[in-house]
Amino acid sequence: MSKLVRRLVPLQVAAFLQGVGFWVPVEKLFMTGIGFDAATIGVMAAAYAALVPGVEVISGILADRWSRRGVLVVAGVAMFASVLIGGLSHNVLTYIVAALVLGIYFAMYSGTVEAMVYDTVLEETGGSTAYERQIGRIRLIESIALVLSALAGGWIAAGAGARLTYFLTLPFVVVSLLALAAFREPHLHETSERSPLREHLHVTYAAITRRGRLIPIAAASVMAALLLQAIFEFGPLWLIALSASPVLYGPFWAGLVSTLGVGGLLAGRLRLDKPPHVVLVVMAMLLACLTMTTSHNLGALTAAMITLTLLLVIAGIHLSRLLHDAVPSTIRTGVASGISAVSWIFFLPFALGFGAVSNEYGVYTAGWMITAAAALAGAGLIWVVARPVAEPAEPLEATEATAASEAEQHAVLRTAA
């Protein structure tokens, strides 16, 4: 076992434990039992989508200036509180509070793990070549936890009720915090002299908006993240529309979340830097979306959603590497969190619109919104591959010193390796 692999083991253990969510596959079933309908589900999704962007930007800056491991611990505490409140909920309002707290978890977690893995790879190897493989392993581990807990959650809900699934999840969250405490955090993001917060914010914003290569990456990342969130948030509504048995929710959700692991394994093997491959991926995404808007066969619908999520996961990992390659470590989490925040801002009106259309005209009509989002995500991927790979990033005066410092660090690491 290499030093890099050994160092990432505590993070992998934490990822597995936080991936255990017995309640997740039956959440929509539980929600309809306490008074939710398609419209209020959309309102709930929009509520935490409104909360996440602000928290995400703050957490990204905090992770870059304080501790990325500390931010993940705070995220784990938020997850514990959310699951506990959700399990105790008996009405719509209380459950929306649980969703808002879960939004804090999403905001604190998003981008932080990727930045930690990327910087750990840089510290241990001196380059980013192994990043896709290592983040893919973590996605696989998360997927295994999600699949196993999804299958178990469906059977638990069928035998003992959906509420119990929430309380059985809590011990796993607690142990995950202990695993995080054992992880040795990389320190590439730390500098000997901290810049003022206002300057840090300016540099982070400028990195997103002024670097020509980063703009198409950001656009594609935003649309892919929005679409992936929409599938996970609203996908179970197709099961409700088809009056599927509660037992089927577990296998359905297991199939969806398994794409996180399979996508992690395939990331880097499917060459999305080649235009023909990107075109095929976009066509497959659109075909899957058309199936979701026309088919009333649960098997075909499940296959279509799995295909769509798998391709989005692969694309997301590819875009993640391009993003991290384009910015220095001192602002890496802030940039990633800023882009993720934009995706949540776009998701807010999408969630409200999807919930309203689904409630008024049915989930199949609302499915055309997902098709439109897939078309935009596909256009973003084509935009990325159409840009010259060797295009240099536009220099930013405020980051020249930190970028030079990071380059020196990387040179030392490469020499040591």
UniProtKB/TrEMBL annotation:
Q: Does the keyword Transmembrane helix apply?
A: yes
Fetch the Pfam families from UniProt: MFS_1 (PF07690)
GO function term, MF aspect, one: transmembrane transporter activity
Transmembrane helix found in the keyword field: yes
Membrane topology, as annotated, equals: Multi-pass membrane protein
TM stretches of this protein: 7-26, 38-63, 70-89, 95-117, 138-158, 164-183, 214-232, 238-266, 278-295, 301-323, 335-357, 363-386
Keywords of this protein's UniProt record, alphabetized? Membrane, Transmembrane, Transmembrane helix
Q: State the organism named in the record.
A: Kribbella voronezhensis
Q: State the GO CC annotations.
A: plasma membrane
What is the protein name for this chain?
A: Putative MFS family arabinose efflux permease
**Where in the cell is the protein located?**
Cell membrane
Record InterPro entries: MFS (IPR011701), MFS_DHA3_Transporter (IPR053160), MFS_dom (IPR020846), MFS_trans_sf (IPR036259)
Q: Where does the record place the Major facilitator superfamily (MFS) profile domain?
A: 1-390
